[in-house]
């Protein structure tokens, strides 16, 4: 027994209530019957998220209570995270997306192990997770006004001049309103 240092009734119980043993080396869980790998696309409110499964079907995933609440720090679910879902074969839905249940959340190390396995066909998942990375990168967006670029080109032509003389001197002599920022 642990020595009660704080004293009082139920102090040992409350101290141990929310402590979990450290998970250091857990076994990689692979898909079994009626289970498939998926990647999270969107998080909806409550306990729902949209996923793309290994067979390329978009499904509505129900997040179980095991993965919600106080002990979810090891199971953070965000767009682009790989998960294992149980497909609801028994459910017959005529309208809307098919449903599945969340069974496992893979971290980055487990994700690399799954990619390294040759027997798994993860093409749809890899494509969907790379698509999210491309959407998040904003390197190809250029914010520029057409009027500014036209004025910029005109100013560069005035600076260079038709005679090929030094741009700073020719531009300052020909137009009194023009101010060269480099001279200031």
What does this structure look like?
The protein has 184 residues and is of the alpha+beta class. The chain has helices at 11-16, 108-116, 123-136, 146-160, 167-174; strands at 35-43, 48-53, 58-62, 82-87, 98-105. The protein has 5 helices and 5 strands, in the order αβββββαααα. The chain has a 5-stranded mixed beta barrel with strand order 1-2-3-5-4.
Nutshell version of this structure?
It contains 5 helices and 5 strands.
Keywords:
five-stranded mixed barrel, 5 helices
Q: Alpha-carbon distance between the termini?
A: 79 Å
Provide the low-confidence segments as ranges.
Answer: 133-137
Number of E-type strands = 5
Figure out the total of helices: 5
Rg over CA atoms: 30 Å
- State the assembly state of the protein chains: single chain
How big a fraction of the residues is strand? 15-25%
Identify the overall geometry: extended
Strand order of the largest sheet: 1-2-3-5-4
Helix content: 25-40%
What's the average pLDDT?
76
The SS-based structural class is alpha+beta
Largest sheet: 5 strands, mixed, barrel
Which sequence of SSEs, written as H and E, runs from N to C? HEEEEEHHHH
SSE blueprint:
Layout: H1 11-16, E1 35-43, E2 48-53, E3 58-62, E4 82-87, E5 98-105, H2 108-116, H3 123-136, H4 146-160, H5 167-174
Parallel strand pairs: 3-5
Antiparallel strand pairs: 1-2, 1-4, 2-3, 4-5
């Amino acid at each position: 027994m642990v020595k009660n240092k704080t004293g009082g009734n139920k102090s040992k119980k409350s101290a141990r209530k929310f402590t979990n043993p450290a998970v250091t080396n857990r076994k990689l869980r692979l898909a079994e019957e009626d289970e498939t790998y998926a990647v999270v696309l969107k998080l909806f409110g409550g306990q729902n998220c949209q996923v793309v499964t290994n067979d390329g079907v978009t499904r509505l995933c129900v997040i179980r209570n095991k993965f919600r609440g106080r002990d979810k720090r090891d199971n953070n679910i965000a767009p682009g995270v790989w998960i294992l879902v149980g497909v609801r074969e028994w459910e017959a839905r005529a309208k809307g997306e098919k449903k599945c249940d969340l069974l496992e959340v893979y971290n980055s190390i487990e994700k690399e192990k799954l990619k390294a396995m040759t027997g798994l066909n993860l093409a749809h998942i890899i494509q969907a997770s790379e698509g999210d990375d491309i959407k998040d990168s904003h390197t190809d967006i250029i914010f520029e006004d057409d009027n500014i670029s036209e004025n910029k080109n005109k100013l560069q032509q005035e600076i260079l001049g038709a005679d090929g003389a030094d741009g700073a001197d020719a531009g300052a002599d020909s137009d009194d309103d023009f101010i060269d920022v480099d001279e200031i």
